[in-house]
Amino acid sequence: MSPSHRTDSVNPADRGGTSASPSRRSLLRTAAAMTAAAPLYSWLSAPTAAAATAASPAARPASGPGEVALRWLEDRPGWFAGAQWGTPWPQGAVPGDQSFTLTAEGGAEVPLQSWPLAYWPDGTLKWSGHALAGGTPAADGYTLAAGEPAAPERAVVVRERPGHVDIDTGVISLRLPTSGTDLVSRVHRGDTPIATHGRLVNIVQRELPDDGLGNVRRDELLSDVRSVTVEQSGPVRAVVRIEGKHRGRGRSWLPFTVRVYAYAGSDSFRMVHSFVFDSDGQDDFVAGLGVRFSVPLRDEPYNRHVRLVGEGHGALTEAVQPLTGLRRDPGEAVRLAQVAGERTPDIDTWDTRVSGRVHLIPRFGEYSLAQLSSEGFTVRKRTRSGYGWVPVDEGRRAAGVGYLGGPSGGLAFGLKDFWQLHPTQLDIRGAHTDTGEVTVWLWSPDAPAMDTRFYHDGLGQDSYEEQLEGLEITYEDYEPEFGTPYGIARTSELTFAALAATPTPEALGGFADAVRATPQLVNPVQQLLDTGAFGGLFTPVDRSTPARAAIEDNLDFLFDYYVTARDQRHWYGFWNYGDVMHSQDGSRRVWSYDIGGYAWANSELSPDLWLWYAFLRSGRADIFRFAEAMTRHTGEVDVYHAGEWAGLGTRHGVQHWADSAKQQRISTAAYRRFYHYLTTDERTGDLISELARSEETFLVLDPGRKVRDEPYEPDPHALRISFGTDWSGLAAAWLSEWERRGPHWEECRDKLLGTMETIAAQPVGFIQNSGLYDLDTGRFALEPEPQYRVSHLNAVFGLVEINAELLQQIDLPEFEAAWLQYCRLYNATPREAEAELGHALSNNGNLKQAHTRLQAFAAARTDDPELAARAWDGFLHPGTSWEYSVDTELVTERVASTLNPTDWFGNASTNNSAQYGLAAIQNLALIGEHLP
């Protein structure tokens, strides 16, 4: 079981001071020295023998953590149900069993739950996870330190019973059956039932008539719970994982994982809903997918309230049986109470002209808010099923938040990224009866059914030769039967609150804000820097000189351009939100949404990494939220989670699953680690764990099958694996599993160490480009002769970043030498390469600006100012028209000829933007003092 799944808090340990923080100049050298001072492994022996040294999570004494000042990512939340975050620690500084305490601004101790997220190889703590209780107003900031945590006044309690699991926060209680249809069979606030029969609903459509004619059959499937696992049981936070499938009418499909989160003292709970699309998209079609609760209604129809939040804090504020606007006035006190969501005065006190005719006032028992595009939602209501709908209003971007109940209690509900993930919908049914029903639709039944079919007929590309010709013209790597969505996934986040009464406008607005952006505590930039988090390849934003300011301006411009493009070009939708486009079409002045491999980026050249490093150095909320959405998308939609290609991702294309290149470079755990460690998100942890044995997929799919120069059949003892785009992803997964102490951590440790050793032992190390990997030994065979196959793609999918982390913590001089040789020689002159290798390199100078960060890495490790100067020269003057040089004017023009007026920067491409961003950030961190 990985650390993030443990049910116990971290045990007490000795307190201690902070470790010394490294300077920018010696950042990587200091990290290496920490390992070299007390080496863990003898590299003269096999990894299996050396690995035993790291078997114990507490193998090395440590001094203890210092204090960490935490702040909210956005403003202090007005509505607060609890929060969680991760904090990094320097190698060797914090014992693996350290306990922590939390203090709010002002000095009050705050209840805290802590657990290990990751360990350094010596057993000290690398990342710790923490949860903060709800139920009290959030402070402006907090201080995390060593110590015994305060106990919550009302701890969350989890009880596992035969047939169900009960969670009690001290304010509300939930019952989670271990089988059947209901995920949550009941939600009580004290003794008052607030909601029942919480279940998943899926509408399946059997046909998809393209002309809109014909009979369309739709069936309703409900959740079928197969397993329930308690992952955390308090005292501050409870986490329960529920797994199953949607089932009904002879159909069982769409496997789901739903995590329920509940916090001590809180009146709400969260659901993180993930499902796998286990269909080829040709037969059955998703016509609706949602989460549904029944809501007992105890108040009179005129005391039953409906709330639906639009943009901002504006909301539809209505009663099931309206008492305002009538021909006869029931009295001001009655009207004001109903509008305010309060109980009306007793009916006997009303004007008798109203009280005697109240049965003649229609009861509007059903409401629907449908957000079918990012640009508009509609609200309608009706009295009951079988009667006509009455239009209510329209708006642009709804919050995805509502409430059904009355003064005696009710249920508030919300879906994060509601309009961004359209088509979505909120439905209220049966509010005129004793039991209403609320459905939060992740896919609206009012929208056309989900269509994931491939978008063209193949264009006659039946052979590899024809497919390579197609690649030459549209940049699409097509192959029959490969453009399938089978195995892709999607995750959605929902929040429910069991309220004692109808919320005030202020409370409902605060709830909506928390649904839109889950309250998130973050570490100061300096803490991330001092601990060498994520390889330490960043420094804080610095505009202290004109040269630095110019680079910072460029970084801001490029990020802002993507924010603007996302909104103006409407990069939204259930399967699309979170991704960006790959390239632009300068003739049409649009992004190339319909041109083969130039459409959706699917992480090509690592925009994920660019965004996360941009956040680490700035702490900016807008960058975090952009990166968060990208992580949610690229880790789910662009990767296969079931089927024969599970563990591989799909190359960039018109549809996220369309391209036939299924590769490790897209599924890589290097892109997921940031969000998991910064937020402790368990779903992202699942995605990382899925990849622990993803190298086995190379047996069923050869990524180089179309371009092999010689016959090759995948062999479990001789799998051809690239040292760049393939191994970087595998290494990221193995490192993550090892440091998280996942189920396969010892196996992953040995594979990581074995491949590092055998890459280093190749005739020309990383320049060898690839090797034959043995699944049984976890090692590469040593090639008898050097092969000089340098690819411009090898280092731009996380290899730089993962190697930086590996060299922080693993003392293998041969591996470091092989990597530094690659870093030095990629941008070297042919003469320099030939002088060292006896052979020229054939990289054609592609992505030279991107690779200046490799030169910078080598310059920092070897303290080489000449190499640093060359790196800056290559970065500022890359020598190609498509890369951003010091002379490139980054400015937009307004274009009115497109469908909507847009801002246009003709030189933008995601490949260049991501790699410029990473090179700028990492060069500043590694060799900033050498910037001309």
Quickly name the level 1 CATH class of the largest domain.
Mainly Alpha
CATH topology of the largest domain, by name, is Glycosyltransferase
- Our count of helices gives 21
Query: Biggest sheet: strands, sense, closure?
Result: 20 strands, antiparallel
Kindly state the number of beta strands.
37
Cα distance, first to last residue? 50 Å
Region (Disordered): 1-26
Protein name: Tat pathway signal sequence domain protein
Domain PcRGLX/YetA-like central beta-sandwich: 156-511
Pfam families: PcRGLX_1st, PcRGLX_2nd, PcRGLX_3rd
Annotate the secondary structure layout:
Elements: H1 27-37, H2 47-51, E1 68-72, E2 82-88, E3 100-104, E4 109-110, E5 112-119, E6 125-133, E7 141-146, E8 157-161, E9 164-168, E10 172-177, E11 184-189, E12 192-205, E13 218-233, E14 237-248, E15 251-263, E16 268-277, E17 285-296, E18 305-309, E19 315-319, H3 332-340, H4 352-355, E20 366-373, E21 376-382, E22 390-395, E23 401-406, E24 409-415, E25 424-429, E26 435-443, H5 464-474, E27 488-499, H6 505-516, E28 521-522, H7 525-530, H8 546-568, E29 584-585, E30 590-591, H9 607-618, H10 621-636, E31 649-650, E32 662-663, H11 664-667, H12 673-679, H13 682-689, E33 719-722, H14 727-740, H15 745-760, E34 770-774, E35 779-780, H16 799-809, H17 813-825, H18 830-837, H19 848-862, H20 865-876, E36 893-895, E37 902-904, H21 910-927
Antiparallel strand pairs: 1-7, 1-28, 2-6, 3-4, 3-7, 5-6, 8-9, 9-10, 10-11, 11-12, 12-13, 12-17, 13-14, 14-15, 15-16, 16-27, 17-26, 18-19, 18-23, 20-21, 20-25, 21-22, 23-24, 24-27, 25-26, 29-30, 31-32, 33-34, 34-35, 36-37
Helix pairs in contact: 1-16, 8-21, 9-10, 9-21, 14-15, 14-16, 15-17, 17-19, 19-20, 19-21, 20-21
InterPro entries: PcRGLX/YetA-like, PcRGLX/YetA_2nd, PcRGLX/YetA_3rd, PcRGLX_1st, TAT_signal
Protein name: Tat pathway signal sequence domain protein
Domain PcRGLX/YetA-like N-terminal RIFT barrel: 67-146
